[in-house]
Amino acid sequence: MSLILTNTSPTHPPFIFLEDVFAVVSLDRENQYRLSVFSDEAVPIFGPSLPCPPVFENPYLFREFLLVKLINGEKATFETPIFAGKRERTLDMLIKDLYSEHMADTKGPMLNRRAFSDVLADAPRSTRLKEDSRQIEFVRIGQALKLEAIVRGDAPTSQASATCSGTVFRKSPWEPNCFYPVFPDYRITCADSWNENKLVIATEEGTFVVEDGTSHHQIFDRSLQVRQLSVVEAHGILLLRAAHSSKESNRIYIFRLSNIESLDASKTRSNVKGQRLERTRGTNLYSISRSGGGRLRMCVAIGRRLQMYQWKHSAAWTTWCAPNDNDTVEGFSFYWELNLNETPSMLTILDNGYSNCSPSPGNIQVCVGYKNHWDIVNGHSNYAQHLHTVELSRPHLVAALDLYEDQEIQLLLCYNHTCHFQKINEDSSTSTDFDFHWNSVPTDIVCAFPYVVAFMNNSMEIRLIVNGNLVHTMSMPRMQLVAGKSDIFFATTAPEFFPSKTDRLAVERQQELQRLSPPASPNISPEVRPLRIYRIPITSLSKSSNSNKSSSSTESPSTWKSTESKLSVPDAPRVSRSATSSPIPPKAKHY
């Protein structure tokens, strides 16, 4: 990092390319110090934050503030991907030098002092034989660890508890909690979660906001038919793909979440004409980049054309300058357009990480799914790569989920009953040893490491992503995935869970009264039931929820009891889905 002293107004020095952070100090006419700090996008946010305006009158206080700011900036630069990689390589070399220096004369170490790498057999000359030996050893060690977990009672399918209170029934990690029990029986077209306790649900009768513990309210009426939506909390916007009717061309609409919260009445199609991105007329599909990245990118499919857009502000800028971020349609910048040979059926934007310079839209790759195959394309360089072809007479593509392992992109390609792992830098004719199959053709698939969840019309299957083993099956009528960005939300017409005995007695008493009451009118359809929306917390599915082995919760899940009682949501840290999720062994690295 560098410190620049100037007598002119602070500007961005165009000649500095090797510095990640630099501070510019200028002296104005009133002998006041003005500080401006510039940093690369790869540098994390560091404090203390600059005052508004960044002007200091006291030179001693300015000196202390500047020292703290520069020290924190220097520490933040070490967290960039470039420095992190160099630090990792340096530590690896130092550890190898220490090992070769102090362990060279040691022959036949004790079994309890052997490293994990010593357990593996010596690598043969052939790469295939090396990978086979790795797989055999990993399976043997994994089976031993699994047996130990079953004995302790900590396995996902075990009902024994490791507490001192003896053997009790544990709460399953996939047990759902009733989030909202009385949503109208409308056909849900799309939905997304909003923060911790809200859902935005689009139906044929309009678009609604469902909040935990309160009644749902409508934000758009049925004149605006929403076919796809995304809530981007990091940038404070709501994206919609909507039209007046099914015959009209769809467009992308952008709204501020703050304006949605302050709505007193539902809006019509005529009220939101100024919120649509006119260049996206005729959109039949869109996809956005993963949450947690520095930039928001949107890929739009208009027939056989792909268009790439990028939000002009980063997530860090929105966090620090939230009052100044009021952009909607003007916030997206157009970058490139690409013509395809076929109309795509699904899109997945791949996060390539940081390059040597700041990431740009030219480095973005998109996984495009067609009728029976997937391709990788880049509109900036006109790059195209065939990925995988489905060799079936009636192919049905379901999803393409991107997984990341050591900044290497892998895709979980799901079609018909099958899920196939595919690395984008390998030939499409790779082995199918890691494929696994569902019992029925899923409609939606969500990855929540170490599980992958598939939703069918009347059931849900949960499997381990590392080997595809089935760990749980849940059957409910008219089951449908609502949102899976953070926690998993799904809707069904099944009655909500009643974990306590008093609730069961109340329901049984109500059923008895209904049996003794006169029969209902024959004009009333028995199929008309309100939808129940359930939530499966991702913290329960993740391994981090089992980190505390000393205690076992025996409390019942939160259940809706009345409109006056608010459901309690446990305060738990969010779990990232960016984990080592692929069972395919990684390639050997050379430093």
What does this entry look like structurally?
The protein is an alpha+beta fold and 591 residues long. It has 4 domains: 76 residues, Rap/Ran-GAP (Rossmann fold); 42 residues, no CATH class; 149 residues, no CATH class; 167 residues. 17% of the residues lie in helices and 31% in strands. It contains 8 helices and 32 strands. The strands form 8 sheets. A 4-stranded mixed β-sheet has the order 1-2-3-4, with helices on one face. The longest helix has 26 residues. The radius of gyration is 28 Å and the shape is globular. The protein starts with a strand and ends in a 50-residue tail after the last helix.
Overview in brief:
Pfam families: CNH (PF00780), Rap_GAP (PF02145). The chain is an alpha+beta fold. It is built from eight helices and 32 strands.
Average the pLDDT over all residues and give the rounded result.
Answer: 77
Give the strand order, joined by hyphens, for the main sheet.
Answer: 1-2-3-4
Content of β-strand: 25-35%
Residue share in helix: 10-25%
Query: How large is the radius of gyration?
Result: 28 Å
Structural class: alpha+beta
**Intertermini distance:** 26 Å
- Shape summary: globular
Protein name: GTPase-activating Rap/Ran-GAP domain-like protein 3
GO biological process, one term: regulation of small GTPase mediated signal transduction
Domain CNH: 185-489
Domain Rap-GAP: 1-98
